[in-house]
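User: Second chain of the day. Same drill as before.
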Amino acid sequence: MATFLYKLGRLAFRRRHFVALIWVALLTLAGVGAASAPPAGNTSFSIPGTEAQKAFDLLEQRFPGASADGATARVVFKAPGGQKMTQAGNKATVEKTVKELSDGSEVASVADPYTGHAVSKDGTVAYTSVKYKVSGMELEDSSRTALEDAAQHARDAGLTVEIGGDALNAAPETGATEVIGIAIAAVVLVITFGSLLAAGLPLLTAIIGVGIGVSTVTALASALDLGTTTSTLASMIGLAVGIDYALFIVSRYRGELAEGHSREEAAGRATGTAGSAVVFAGLTVVIALVGLSVVNIPMLTKMGIAAAGTVVIAVLIALTMIPALLGYAGRRVKPAGEKSRLLGGGRPAKKPARANMGTRWASFVVRRPVAVLLLGVVGLGAAAVPAASLELGLPDDGSQPVSTTQRRAYDLLSEGFGPGFNGPLMVVVDAKGSHDAKAAFTEVTDEIKGLKDVVTVTPAQPNKAGDTATITVVPNSKPSSTTTEDLVHAIRDAGSGIKDKTDAEVLVTGSTAMNIDVSQKLNDALFPYLALVVGLAFLLLIVVFRSVLVPLKAALGFLLSVMAALGAVVAVFQWGWLSGLMGVEETGPVMSMMPIFMVGVVFGLAMDYEVFLVTRMREAYVHGEKPSQAVVTGFRHGARVVTAAAVIMIAVFSGFIGSSESMIKMIGFGLAIAVFFDAFIVRMAIVPAVLALLGRRAWWLPRWLDRALPNVDVEGEGLRAHDSRRTDPDEDREPALA
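Assistant: Same format as last time:
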């Protein structure tokens, strides 16, 4: 591995014009594809095999043309102070709006509030439901514009009008904080390298990689049914790992220059050693992201594969484009310890009188491993305590910012009709196998009316064949509450008894029931997914470190950090701690995808730091140092860079906390705090403490397994055979700029 990458790095350095041309061409091609592709929509949370999805499929068969999965909009009207919606002027405005909404070519139906009992008891709020023939993803912009124009005309007439439903779902906005995150990354890189040019290389290559990845996702969004969230998450992860991977190779390159190697030789050696770590770190991230497909949720699978694609691009760019750009930079990238002309006057920095901070910290941990280990474990355990109160759900309009019309429509409906009105349940009764379908419909209706937390049950609406009917149930509690979830389970339990009596099957669906089924599916898949991903990565790390205990320690440390991060997410987004600082306007259940997504992403990123830091320790140990000294050596060479990488990744993820989309905000915070816990507590404290306690046993591997495993040579032992003549960097024949 190291020898192959060494040759690749030297080749990219020499053929830099060709390498740069290839990546620029790929970026251009992806950009053209994204610009010419139709815009992405918002994917649904459907899951094959769930009861809610089965009911949707049944409605498509038994109610042809009903567009069960079509986009919906609720236009909510509120009368001015002291007036009623039933007054002649207000009624005329609403009827005019209903007629205007009915003119759209994609509109399937528009309900009249006055004939459909859609006026609140106090008469101040009314609504009309607009049903479209196509899904929210397929809805044309002209239909959305017509919807907004109709609402605006009613506003001009004096009414308060807001629009809810999925017809107006817009792409999330990340705000200025994302730019601030990139700016922080740039500052950290400048401090780390002491050079503007060296700091700019990781940023440049990361942006190019994310540009190619996100443009490709955008170009394929319509064809592959990729939502807007997919590209946002791909850019989040691609930017973070892209900067980190390039950072490690540039840092190793400067170290090789400081040892006296020529620039081409240094590029080859940096790619062969740090590049090997990049490959295996990238593989762990890809395994974790692609492994999301085992959950069998199409949207989650697409998100994982898209993000994994950006990680693969980041690895390839780090291995090829970074050496090429180093060739262009020439003498402008200084050896380690030497500052640029702008920051240090072009003079070599004075050698420090004492060891660097990484060495001092590692020496402290090696002397007091038990105290550091206990403090780290207890601290993370305390942070994980809130995770015991974790409640899962999926976001609805009630979790939107109050500045959005969807949230204001949600609040108006809650005010006029009760909180459960925003999440009605659709009960589908399949009486095709029943001898008396009408009796079955009546039985179901009466049974549901007797359940707790039920406000309204509409009469059964049968299809033309009379063998299937729909019943709308309005709960007394809001859609995301556990009380509503209990009602869904109660209806399904009652349906089992009804089937025994009437041979009619009762199915519960609707967006609320679908969200409950999605959450259950994710809960059931969490532990199998965790076992699969951790198991595969464990085997990979055994190959990398040629040890059993080191990968085991890495996996256990990850579990500590991810549980602590989940605890922090619960504290902020469910309990409301620091919610004002984080811009959380509505607390509630944690997004049901959060635990499994965090497990996947954080595991991959945690293994990045494990690979980068511990491979330097392994390298020192293989070269003859004692185990405790190898820990200190690993920190001397790697702690500064790993710290910089972690700060950069935290800054990038934190930038997404400013998103208007609650799911993106939660994921950004969760990943940022997880990286903090894992990098600074697990990898920087617990890992060296455990290795110090284990000593030589940390690198133990059974002989039979040692013979069976392939030798990937992450430490670069094979490079000794390719050791080239060392030259003074100032005597390189390569020009400063080619």
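The two ends are 29 Å apart (CA to CA).

User: Great, on to the next one.
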